[in-house]
Structure formats: structure tokens, C-alpha cells
Amino acid sequence: MAIIESEHIDAEKRFGGNGTIHIQKLLTPKELDGKCAMFARVTIPPHASMGAHKHEGNTETYHILSGRARYNDNGKEIEIGAGTTTFCADGEVHAIANASETEDLVFMALIINKYFGRKATAVRGSPSYSSRFCIVWIHSYRRASIGSRRAALRAG
Predict the structure, then answer these.
(1) Contacts from 71-78 at CB under 8 Å and sequence distance 24+?
(2) pTM of the model
(3) pLDDT per residue over 4-59, tens digit each?
(4) The dihedral formed by the CA atoms of 133, 134, 138 and 140, expressed in degrees to the nearest 10
(5) Which helix (H) or strand (E) holds 21?
(6) Alpha carbon distance, N-terminus to C-terminus of the chain
(7) Cα–Cα dist 13/65, whole Å
(8) What is the predicted pLDDT for the residue at 92?
(9) How many CA atoms lie within 13 A of 28 on its CB side?
(10) CB contact at 8 A, 62 and 78
């Protein structure tokens, strides 16, 4: 069993949103093992938001723990609250804003890499460490596969 120390990030105007949001990354790239880009607890204070962003090569799920949110799903805005789970598929766009004047919005966020070993990122972000690692891994795997196929053809 491992006890993991979480990383706290204060992100100002995340993806063009308003204010500062607080991200507590619960697992490190080592634990995520390239399969996920992030598993975190996110807090958005009143009057703050995370702007619209597109996911490419990954998906993102939010599970609202407390508070109320205005959730933008590909341009369609709905109000959601505690117990609601959202899913942003590969190639889709979403955004989230705190809908309360007094209460923090708190939710879990999970970004799953759609294709293990390929570059996956939100359009306005940069590839995660795990994504860069996976690109190297897939390149090495392909080179080994090509060499094995050539040897089999020569022998056959």
C-alpha cells in the first residue's frame, strides 16, 4: 500500500475561464501509468469557471460532490448539482462554471487517455508526461514489430 501526497495547483483563468480554480491531483503520473492524464478533486469558488476546451485523444468525466454548476456540453448549457456525473467524449467540447453566489463547487475529474500510447491532450493544454512517455513506448513497439515481420519474411 502506498500513501500518496497530492499535488495542489491554483489555476488562474483556466482555459479562458474566470477567477482561480483549485486542483488537487490525487495521483501522480507514475500511478496513472499512461492510462489516465489526471485524477483530481477540483474546487471552483463562486464567480469562477473553467472555460470551454476540446478533448482530443482522451475523455473527461466530472462527478459533482457539492455545489451547483452551469455545465456547457458542446454549446448546450444545463444546470447540474451534487450527484450528477458528466462525460465529455473524445473530440467534444465542455466547460463548467460555479452557479452559486456563496458556495464552492466541488467535483472529481478523471481524464482517461482514449488510446494508450498516443498523444492525448485538451486543445488548450500541453501533452501530459504520461502521454509523452507513451509516444516513445509505441514508437519502440512498432520498430520491434517491423523488425520481427522482416525476419519472418526472410526465413519463410
Answers:
(1) 71/95, 71/96, 72/96, 72/97
(2) 0.74
(3) 899 999 999 999 999 999 999 999 988 999 899 999 999 999 999 999 999 999 99
(4) 20
(5) strand 20-25
(6) 49
(7) 22
(8) 97
(9) 7
(10) no
Cell numbers placing 48: 469562477
Which of 23, 105, 108 has its CA nearest to residue 61? Answer: 108
Encode burial over 30-44: b for 16+ CB neighbours within 10 A, e otherwise.
eebebebbbbbbbbb
In the numeric block, the cell 469562477 is attached to 48
User: Three cell numbers at 46?
Assistant: 463562486
Tell me how far apart the alpha carbons of residues 115 and 91 are, in angstroms, rounded to a whole number: 13
**For 89, phi and psi rounded to 5 degrees?**
-75, 165
Residues 6+ positions from 8 with CB-CB distance below 8 Å: 22, 23, 24, 25
| Backbone φ/ψ region at 57: left (φ over 0), alpha (ψ -120 to 50), beta | left
CB 76 within 8 A of CB 88: no
SS (H, E, C) 59-97: EEEEEEEECEEEEEECCEEEEEECCCEEEECCCCEEEEE
